[in-house]
Amino acid sequence: MPPIVGPDMVMPPAADADAVVAGQGAPATVEPGVRRMLRRRQAAVLIFLLIAIVVLVVGQVVRSSNNSATPVDKAGTGALAPGAQGVPVKPAEPTATATAAPTKTTAGGIPPDAVDQPPTKAPTNVSSTGFSFVGGYGPVLGTTGTLRRFKVAVENRTGNGNGNEFAAEVDRILGDPRSWIAGRQFRLQRVPQAAGSEFTIYLSSAKTSEKMCATGGLKTAAFSSCRMPGQVIMNLDRWRDAVPDYDAPLEVYRAYTINHEVGHQLGHSHEACPGKGKPAPVMMQQTYGLNGCVANAWAYLDGKRYAGNPID
Asked: In three state form, how does the secondary structure of 130-169 look?
């Protein structure tokens, strides 16, 4: 039966079209403030997603760059070293060994004492094992020119003690005003093993000197001294006894052989006897005979360079 509406009774308002009717799932009315809040939340979510995408992309680029870097080259093959920034590491080149020209022989079958070699700044080919280097600094020999340094080493089993006596004799010979310093182009000084030098003067037994000279292709038959780049190798037998028929005191022969081999180190070649009865040039191979010349130990005579004709 329908309700009876009296004059004092009010009918409920009609339902709002946007109101949610229980059990019917209709949307409710959204206030303007609520809509603004929802839009702000949506914008914030979009911004967050954009930031996340940018971070991911940048991270991927960084990882890709790191993975493409060249690893450290431990084998020296030319790969990039860390921090090299594109500059390749060049492998070390092998050290060249000294070579010598074929040796000649005298009438007696004994090879000459050395072949010509250009001067160098560092010893090569000779091991210092079994040698004692003379310590301390020697006097500066000469008055003008570039200072060229050398060392002195004595084989331990030669019975020459610490080598001081031999070193003093070397200083005396090279410091003589008739020696190479007379050219006034350079000075010489003996230095200890730890110091830098241009060459080393070795005093070694006949057999050891033969082996040392052979490393440069020189055949001395254990008879003579020799010189290779950076190495002046003195034969102990010659140092003690000179050679037969030299017709001069031992100290003259010693001065000759030091000046001759050091002369090779300074760039001088062999020279011939200029004539019978004349002084033998210091670069003449006096060890194998004077050929009519008179024994002479010095490169300068009467203040002038004394030399013979060059020979091969």
From this structure: CEEECCCCCCCECCCCEEEEEEEEEEHHHCCCCCHHHHHH
Residues 6+ apart with CB under 8 A from 98: 117, 124, 125, 216, 217, 228, 229
Residue (of 247, 237, 259) closest to 291 by Cα position: 247
The tokens for 92 are 């070390």
- Cα distance from N-terminal residue to C-terminal residue, the chain: 149
- Per-residue exposure over 6-28, b if at least 16 CB sit within 10 Å of its own CB, e if not: eeeeeeeeeeeeeeeeeeeeeee
Structure tokens given for 55 = 């971070």
pLDDT surpasses 90 at 42 = no
φ, ψ at 130 (rounded to 5°): 90, 5
Q: How far apart are CA 292 and CA 175, in angstroms?
A: 29
Task: Find where tokens 């008179």 sit.
Answer: 294
Where is 301: in which H helix or E strand?
Answer: strand 300-301
User: Who has greater pLDDT, 307 or 19?
Assistant: 307
Inter-residue contact 243 to 254 (CB < 8 Å): no
Is the pLDDT higher at 39 or at 139?
Answer: 139
Contact 266, 117 (CB under 8 A): no
Extents of the domains making up the chain: 131-305
What would be the CATH architecture of the domain defined by 131-305? 3-Layer(aba) Sandwich (3.40)
Phi and psi at 58, nearest 5°, equal -65, -45
* Alpha carbons 262 and 201: distance in angstroms, whole number: 8
Q: Which helix (H) or strand (E) holds 52?
A: helix 32-67
The answer to whether 251 touches 228, Cβ cutoff 8 Å, is no
The answer to whether residue 142 scores a pLDDT higher than 80 is yes
Nearest to 209 by CA among 233, 189, 240: 233
Residue 267 · residue 119 · CB < 8 Å: yes
144 burial class (0-12, 13-18, 19+ CB within 10 angstroms)? Answer: exposed
